[in-house]
Specification:
272 residues, Glutaredoxin, 4-stranded mixed sheet, 50% helix, 9% strand, binds glutathione
Length: 272
């Protein structure tokens, strides 16, 4: 994003990830400047986790050796999180967003996305136009987090080859539950073609990003295990027909495409 205005927030995370797209897509609609700091997922462990996040030198690592924290979700190794990072980020996770002065930490990708839309008060319908509409959008974001919890466990277990039927079935239930609500909402609002209103809202952006995150489960496993096959494939293209169509439509939108195109086509390439 080339912008001349000062960034209104900074986000530190590994890149790319659909969790960050929630904010970058919303920012494009509202012309808000965000500063992104981060590196490839495999290299983020070699960065200082801080408001002033940066790659660590060998000397830094020696100096900070007794200041490391054991990673909990997605990291089995020690991470270099500063005291001020942990003071502003109570869960110590990334994506980690900060106010421009670094004093306020904002965590959870849905809440970071909400911050982006709250930074623009005029001509902004992304978070609905009334308290009722905003709260309905919140409902979809809350529901996405329940799905995200099980889907994260499932995707991480695929990464480290520990996936089993219990984890897969929990993810399948969570997927069905989340997608049923999205499908019902799209059916009710068919004439407008979005989840909650006449326009794209945070509910659509969040759905697109959570589905994109989950989407890589369709890549066949390197070491196939008995009873572990793709949930999306098992349910087939007919289930959640409107939701999948909605995903495909959003994928073509220029503000979504910038982030998602390469990530999703890399997944699709692995299917052939
Ligand atoms: N629900 C959170 C997920 C955040 C999360 O679990 N982040 C993991 C990486 S995927 C993390 O920062 N782990 C660091 C640690 O466990 O110390 C969101 O959407 O922001």
């Amino acid at each position: 994003m080339v912008k001349t205005t000062k960034p209104l927030l900074r986000i530190f995370c590994y890149l790319p990830t659909p969790r960050i797209w929630k904010s970058t897509i919303a920012a494009r609609f509202l012309d808000i400047n965000i500063e992104l700091r981060g590196t490839k997922p495999t290299e983020i462990k070699d960065w200082l986790w801080d408001f002033d996040a940066r790659p660590l030198t060998k000397e830094d690592k020696v100096k900070l050796a007794d200041k490391t924290t054991k990673g909990r979700t997605g990291f089995s190794i020690k991470l270099y999180k500063t005291a001020s990072f942990l003071a502003t980020q109570p869960y110590g996770t990334i994506p980690a967003a900060f106010s421009p002065d670094g004093k306020i930490g904002i965590f959870e990708s849905n809440s970071i996305m909400r911050l982006v839309v709250r930074l623009k008060t005029k001509n902004n319908t992304l978070y609905g136009s009334t308290p009722y509409e905003s709260s309905r959008i919140d409902g979809f974001l809350d529901a996405s987090l329940i799905f995200a919890r099980s889907s994260q466990k499932y995707l991480l277990s695929i990464n480290n080859n520990s996936v089993n039927k219990t984890i897969r079935n929990e993810a399948k239930e969570a997927y069905i539950s989340y997608m049923t609500g999205i499908e019902n909402a799209l059916r009710e609002n068919k004439k407008n073609g979005f989840i909650t209103s006449k326009n794209i809202t945070l509910a659509d952006i969040c759905f697109f990003c959570e589905f994109s995150l989950f989407y890589r489960e369709i890549i066949p496993l390197n070491n196939p295990k008995n009873g572990i096959n793709s949930i999306i494939n098992e349910l087939g293209p007919k289930s959640f027909n409107l939701s999948i169509k909605h995903f495909k439509k959003l994928k073509k939108h220029p503000y979504f495409k910038i982030d998602a195109n390469k990530y999703l086509s890399d997944i699709e390439k692995k299917l052939t």
